[in-house]
Amino acid sequence: MSYQLPDLPYHYNALEPHIDEQTMHIHHDKHHAAYIAKLNVALESNPSLEGKDLAECMKTVGSLGLSDSDKTAFINNGGGHLNHTLFWEIMGPAKQINEELHEKVKSTFGSVDSFKEELSNIAATHFGSGWAWLVDSAGELKIYSTANQDSPYLKGDTPVIGLDVWEHAYYLKYQNQRPEYIKAWWNVMKVL
Ligand code: MN
Q1: Exposed / middle / buried, residue 192 (Cβ in 10 Å: 0-12, 13-18, 19+)
Q2: Residue 107 CA to ligand 1 centre (angstroms)
Q3: Closest C-alpha to 84, from 180, 151, 17
Q4: Consecutive 10-residue runs of the chain (192 residues): their mean pLDDT?
Q5: CA of 21 to the centre of ligand 1 (A)
Q6: 87: CA distance to ligand 1 center in Å?
Q7: Where are the domains of the chain?
Q8: Which positions fall inside the Manganese/iron superoxide dismutase C-terminal domain (predicted)?
Q9: Which of 16, 86, 116, 169 is 20 to 30 A from 145, alpha carbon to alpha carbon?
Q10: CATH fold of 19-192
Q11: Confidence (pLDDT) at 1
Q12: What is the reported pLDDT for 50?
């Protein structure tokens, strides 16, 4: 079984003007597709992973018996696939509030606004490429960032909301203004 690029759940221009159509094309059709292609190469040389759940594999990546280079490829490209799949799903042109999450965010962070402020700060100050996350960590909501394509599953956490702060996610429209991208992104993050 090889992984395939999932279609975007909306049109490439659906997140305009906040996320531009060209960025969505390159981000989905080139970057996400490349992670999947490289993930499939890593899986070809490790047939024991065939048919296993990717997120579960990520949680136990140290005990899968992978060579160091395959392990790195798996973390980068399996993470790239998982991270982007969630990213497309939590965005959309119209709000689709997850009420349960909404309540839990309010009780954990005081208000949705303070949650947004905290995640935005983490995202804006993350050095280099990576992601800012809201995760479920053993039933508790937490915010942190990870480098590169490292998935929260590597720590045993379940990603709930992920904000891609790689330059490929915003550079065409926002250039070096990452905070402007982050501010705009909340308009298309649909679950809160
Ligand atoms: Mn990306």
Answers
A1: buried
A2: 30
A3: 151
A4: 92 98 98 97 90 94 93 97 98 97 98 98 98 98 98 98 98 98 98 96
A5: 14
A6: 8
A7: 19-192
A8: 99-189
A9: 16
A10: minor pseudopilin epsh fold (3.55.40)
A11: 59
A12: 83
